[in-house]
């Protein structure tokens, strides 16, 4: 028998609020005093019938108010119907069907459907059945029910896509559906080896019976694994996951127009390169396509965008004239950053900057010296920081400590006299290795351990500073703090090889680039997406995606969305290997039951009806209330 | 003018605090009569009957020496010891008479008035009787001028209890049919009944040659409807409730009550019936004046 249950039953206590309108109703009745009067027969203004009508209206108003409050509490308690189709305490057979790209080979998914149907047919008569589809995500397509026809229909409606395989996600979701009453989980999959992603999380309870129905993998698969622009054309890599050499027709299209075709030989379990010597436009979209009738169709095409990514404007501010070496290392390090996030670096000395200070379009400012800044220049920098600007400040010999407060807008506690390192030199020690600027270093301590610094300035570690690195003696070497709406990062020595040789260290360029990316995060454009990651609002179909301009009136950007090449490898594991990778946990009934309840509540959405009826009741109350005497 | 009258006469609320009805009636009447010495009504209380020839044994104090000076005859004044005026005090004891907002209810006011009138009648050797009624006659004391009768009447007035619905016409009709002697009928009621039936009933007396005085007793609230909060107005006789906002019904109500009073005044006056509207905050002496005026006509 269907029954009503609640996801958040404590909200039902809110129904006690009905005491308020009831009390007001009763109180109001009591305050409407009765006046014994002798000449009532002479009063014709308010006949007795109206009194009855008013009583009725008051009762209706009370009923509407009470109903509105009850419905509000009802809606917040998130009700759902627990019925014959909801699972109850019956054991269950859940069929988890792999719909990733690795089951999209010829005939594979038909086999998968057949296996899934068999699993439904073989389910014990006492079991409810449910169907979960999974790739990168797991979705219940047929909720637990005794209606096997619905489950079979859901299976018939499944199609393989271009997503990846995530076994842990699928198993965890299916286990949630089964819940504490237990049952059987049938996994219909090709057992792709890459399906056990280490970053994937999920487990199944101990004792859950898991049956694997294996969809045969194709004998081989050809996949376009990369496309890139070359100086003389376009190069594409095609990988052969099969066990025999194949000849592969490869076609190139630029902006939808065929631009070349060739056939290449690709050895077994190897990659072959297809190079097209064509004139490649500065802007446009590339498509490399191969023919692979037996493999997965999703990886037969690969897309790339030729549009140069918009460079992020960065300013390097020096104390000396441009002809000197000041700021040179910073400039060069920033200029080598390419790929999807290049920087447009401008080098300027303090005098020229002060003459016409303009920082509005600068994503970040690197300061190697401030001595030549005049008041206008300092004020412009301070205002830039206050309004959200990002500043990297080196505290080398070209920095005027006396005017530093004016330059950054706040007192940052720097001792005016430089400190000479004891022993002649000290090294950098990252204090917060999780910080984004240390991301490219597998071992930040080792990378910065051989940076010799002979002189630096003492930065007082005051409130507000976040120390990212220290000198070996413990003094602050690299720190950041918010200034107004902006951010100031301070390096306590210089980056012009006068107090240290850091610019000549291998860690310098990645450090500066990551620092620039950190400071300009949010200003770079992403041109390539690999599923399941996709641009906001995109449906996850591989191809070229037109994205809206980031600002009004700006240029619309394009991005290429491609499948994850890890999904192209059809190599499968054995059922034993699959089972060995399973993460089992002690069965905990409550979370699973709660999860099922949440799912049922989400499907039924009775709270929406409750709120709708509540609004109708309030509208009626408002209408009647206005008519009340 | 009202303020002046209040200063000369007794406030009914003050009268209400006096002990027994006997004392109340005496206070009202004696005060009233002492006031009459300064009023145009002087002389109504002197009951002179006739002259007759002095007979040996007569009290010398009774000889009218002025007549002896003019006519050289000894005559004595003869004062009439008894009167031929029968007066019926009809007091409405229906439930609506229980209303009061001025420190005294209408039934109390009616009792004081009837008591004072009875006291005055007794003092003037008139025979006073009492009939209490609601929709029927609930108590009846035949008129009598005996000194002990006044006490009985005052006790009866003091013991009056509120009855049910008003039906002035029926007891009036019953009484009119029972009266065999001309006299005076004084009706003390709030007359909250069908005015046509009330007037018709009163006319019965007049047609039989009986003088009628109607004291229409109403509370100040009934005349001004001073309420300002919405309330359920419950009829004191029928328990019928009317939910009303006073601001909304005041105009209509006042129009109704003024129309009712005007109709009584007009139609009763046209029938030769004295009509006197009293609100319970008015001094009872005004009612006594009305009585004396009517009595003068009745004799």
Considering the chains and any ligands shown, give keywords for the structure.
heterodimer, A: 629 residues, alpha/beta, Rossmann fold, Immunoglobulin-like, eight-stranded mixed β-sheet, five-stranded mixed β-sheet, 14 helices, 28% strand, extended, B: 299 residues, 2 domains, six-stranded mixed β-sheet, two-stranded antiparallel ribbon, 10 strands, elongated
Commentary on this structure:
The complex is a heterodimer of chains A (629) and B (299). Chain A is 27% helix and 28% strand. Chain A has 629 residues and is of the alpha/beta class. Chain A folds into five domains: 3-77 and 606-627, no CATH class; 92-217 and 573-587, Rossmann fold, CATH 3.40.50.410; 222-307, Immunoglobulin-like (Sandwich); 312-519, Rossmann fold; 528-562, no CATH class. In chain A, the strands form eight sheets. An eight-stranded mixed beta sheet of chain A has the order 18-17-19-20-26-25-24-22. Chain A is extended, with a radius of gyration of 35 Å. Chain B is an alpha/beta fold and 299 residues long. Chain B folds into two domains: 2-38 and 83-298, Rossmann fold; 48-79, no CATH class. Chain B has a six-stranded mixed beta sheet, with helices on both faces. In chain B, helix 3 crosses helix 5 (106-123), helix 5 packs antiparallel against helix 6 (147-158) and helix 8 runs parallel beside helix 10 (246-270). Chain B is elongated, with a radius of gyration of 21 Å. The model of chain B is unreliable at 1-9 and 35-46 (pLDDT under 50). The A-B interface holds A 32-48, 50-51, 54, 629 and B 96-99, 106, 190, 192, 219, 221-222, 227, 229-238, 240-245, 248-249, 252-253, 256-257, 260. Strand 2 (34-37) of chain A pairs parallel with strand 8 (231-235) of chain B.
């Amino acid at each position: 028998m269907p029954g009503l249950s609640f996801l958040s039953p404590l909200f039902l206590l809110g129904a006690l609020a009905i005491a308020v309108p009831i009390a007001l109703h009763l109180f109001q009745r009591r305050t409407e005093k009765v006046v014994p009067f002798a000449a009532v027969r002479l009063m014709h203004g308010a006949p007795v019938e109206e009194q009855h009508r008013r009583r009725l209206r008051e009762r209706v108003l009370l009923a509407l108010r009470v109903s509105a409050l009850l419905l509000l509490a009802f809606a917040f308690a998130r009700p759902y119907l627990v019925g014959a189709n909801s699972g109850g305490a019956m054991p269950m057979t859940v069929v988890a069907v792999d719909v990733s790209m690795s089951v999209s080979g010829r005939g594979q998914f038909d086999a998968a459907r057949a296996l899934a149907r068999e699993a439904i047919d073989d389910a014990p008569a006492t079991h409810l059945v449910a169907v979960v589809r999974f790739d990168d995500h797991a979705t219940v397509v047929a909720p637990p029910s005794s209606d096997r026809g619905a489950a079979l229909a859901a299976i018939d409606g499944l199609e393989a896509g271009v997503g990846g395989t995530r076994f842990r996600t699928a198993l965890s979701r299916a286990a949630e559906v089964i819940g504490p009453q237990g049952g059987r989980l049938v996994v219909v999959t090709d057992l792709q080896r890459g399906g056990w992603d280490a970053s994937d999380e999920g487990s199944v309870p101990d004792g859950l019976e898991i049956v694997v129905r294996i969809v045969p993998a194709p004998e081989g698969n050809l996949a376009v694994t990369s496309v890139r622009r070359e100086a003389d054309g376009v190069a594409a890599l095609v990988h052969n996951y099969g066990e025999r050499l194949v000849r592969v027709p490869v076609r190139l299209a630029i902006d939808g127009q065929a631009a070349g075709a060739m056939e290449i030989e690709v050895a077994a379990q190897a990659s072959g390169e297809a190079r097209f010597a064509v004139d490649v436009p500065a802007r446009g979209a590339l498509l490399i396509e191969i023919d692979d009738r037996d493999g997965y169709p999703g990886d037969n095409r690969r897309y790339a965008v030729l549009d140069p990514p918009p460079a992020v404007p960065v300013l390097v501010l020096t104390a000396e004239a441009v002809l000197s070496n000041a700021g040179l290392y910073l400039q060069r390090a920033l200029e080598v950053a390419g790929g999807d996030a290049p920087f447009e670096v401008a080098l300027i000395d303090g005098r020229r900057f002060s003459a016409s200070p303009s920082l509005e379009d600068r994503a970040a400012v690197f300061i190697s010296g401030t001595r030549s800044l005049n008041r206008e220049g300092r004020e412009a920098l301070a205002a830039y920081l206050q309004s959200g600007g990002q500043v990297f400040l080196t505290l080398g010999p070209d920095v005027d400590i006396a005017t530093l407060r004016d330059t950054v807008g706040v007192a940052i506690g720097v001792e005016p006299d430089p400190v000479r390192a004891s022993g002649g030199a000290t090294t950098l020690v990252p204090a917060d290795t999780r910080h984004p600027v240390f991301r490219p270093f597998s071992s930040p301590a080792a990378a910065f351990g051989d940076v010799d610094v002979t002189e630096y300035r003492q930065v007082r570690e005051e409130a507000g500073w976040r120390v990212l690195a220290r000198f070996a003696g413990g003094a602050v070497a690299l720190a950041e703090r918010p200034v107004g709406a902006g951010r100031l990062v301070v390096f306590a020595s210089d980056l012009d090889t006068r107090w240290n040789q850091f610019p000549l260290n291998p860690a310098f360029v990645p450090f500066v680039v990551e620092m620039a990316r950190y400071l300009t995060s949010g200003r770079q454009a992403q041109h390539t997406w690999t599923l399941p990651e996709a641009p906001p609002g995109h449906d996850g179909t591989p191809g070229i995606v037109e994205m809206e301009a980031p600002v009004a009136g700006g240029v619309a950007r394009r991005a290429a969305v491609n499948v994850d090449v890890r999904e192209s490898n059809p190599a499968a594991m054995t059922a034993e290997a699959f089972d060995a990778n399973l993460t089992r946990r002690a069965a905990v009934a409550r979370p699973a039951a709660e999860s099922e309840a949440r799912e049922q509540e989400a499907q039924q959405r009775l709270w929406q009806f409750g709120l709708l009826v509540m609004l109708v009741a309030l509208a009626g109350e408002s209408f009647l209330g206005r008519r009340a005497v | 003018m009202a303020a002046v009258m209040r200063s000369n006469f007794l406030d009914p609320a003050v009268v209400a605090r006096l002990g027994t009805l006997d004392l109340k009636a005496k206070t009202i009447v004696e005060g009233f009569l002492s006031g009459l010495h300064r009023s145009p009504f002087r002389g109504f209380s002197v009951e002179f009957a006739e002259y007759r020839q002095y007979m040996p044994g007569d009290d010398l104090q009774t000889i009218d020496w002025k007549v002896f000076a003019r006519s050289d005859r000894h005559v004595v004044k003869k004062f009439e010891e008894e009167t031929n005026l029968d007066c019926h005090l009809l007091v409405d004891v229906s439930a609506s008479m229980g209303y009061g907002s001025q420190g005294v209810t209408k039934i109390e006011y009616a009792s004081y008035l009837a008591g004072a009138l009875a006291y005055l009648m007794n003092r003037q050797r008139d025979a006073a009787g009492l009939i209490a009624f609601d929709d029927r006659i609930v108590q009846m004391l035949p008129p009598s001028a005996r000194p002990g009768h006044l006490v009985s009447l005052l006790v009866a007035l003091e013991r009056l209890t509120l009855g049910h619905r008003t039906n002035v016409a029926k007891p009036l009709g019953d009484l009119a049919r029972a009266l065999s002697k001309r006299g005076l009928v004084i009706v003390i009621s709030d007359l909250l009944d069908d005015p046509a039936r009330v007037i018709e009933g009163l006319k019965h007396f007049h047609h039989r040659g009986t003088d009628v005085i109607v004291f229409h007793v109403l509370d100040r609230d009934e005349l001004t409807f001073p309420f300002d909060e919405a309330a359920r107005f419950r009829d004191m006789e029928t328990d019928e409730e009317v939910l009303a906002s006073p601001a909304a019904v005041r105009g209509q109500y006042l129009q109704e009550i003024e129309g009712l009073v005007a109709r009584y005044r007009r139609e009763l006056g046209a029938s030769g019936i004295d009509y006197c509207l009293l609100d319970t905050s008015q001094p009872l002496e005004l009612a006594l004046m009305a009585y004396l005026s009517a009595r003068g006509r009745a004799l």
